[in-house]
């Protein structure tokens, strides 16, 4: 049964807004929101404004409204369209909450965002205006896309003990010292999984070293698709971190804590102050996303509901669900073969549960996909 607007509003004090990032698909159900008899006017207006923002920044005409209406998916070739489209749809979904249901999202306990989503979370929190926040990502997008050429993404995972970031980083550095290609950790998804990005044959050479360096229980699985190598040292090659920092000197705003406050995936904590927005965003460019630390912080702070914002969010909902399933399987029953089997297959979780008891809350946190919720409602 769909949560009512009254129920959603009462959950705000213990609710987290979760913003999605860039992916190979970025439209979600945006076309349904655009064609909706009540929502469509506001959605269309915000998409036209987003198109103008993109045109003003890069000097190239674009029609995001037509793209959404025709359900023409974005690709790396139109990466800037995706940046603005995802951000604009995240913000307008929250605006629809207030306009049609009287729910002020600013009453939420906190917000967080994966990759690009952290920028949208900061905009939604009133820290910085959308046009200011997106200037550096848009102006440097062409270089990010160029760096994506020859870059592959892979999931590193352990079937045994938790992965240690220091050990993985060391092996990345050893791999980078041979040849002229670079690789690095892009995200820490859980204690036993990380996202890696690598140029050329780096991932293949990294995989060859795994048995000797980390044991037979650690594996690397390459994914299809092409992504700009954000949150890795590959971004250094065109000086993107420092070039973005220089642009942010002139950026207006960034001098207040967000409402709601933003839980940063750069640090995995509520680290933003009224003066460090530029410093954190500088590190955002090339530092790995500490998704696991942020997820645990959500549980530790007593969050009861996660409202996923944006078109067809994927990584954050999947991470919460996977952890819930793992904790349920790990704790179901205290004796018997089934419980013993769960322990055997999730030793990383067994090791963490005695000290990090907030993980037990994974089974009770409720997830809501905002675009689905909006389209399921009977508008007053």
Describe this structure in words.
The protein is of the alpha/beta class and 380 residues long. The protein folds into 2 domains: 5-144 and 238-376, Malonyl-Coenzyme A Acyl Carrier Protein, domain 2; 151-225, Ribosomal protein S10 (Alpha-Beta Plaits, 2-Layer Sandwich). The chain has helices spanning 5-10, 30-35, 40-58, 64-70, 79-101, 116-124, 130-139, 141-148, 165-176, 202-214, 240-249, 277-284, 291-300, 315-331, 337-345, 347-352, 370-376; strands at residues 15-19, 110-113, 151-158, 183-190, 193-199, 218-223, 262-263, 305-309, 366-369. Strands 7-2-1-8-9 form a 5-stranded parallel beta sheet, sandwiched between helices. It is globular. The two termini are 18 Å apart. The relative contact order is 0.16. Mean pLDDT is 92; it is low at 333-345.
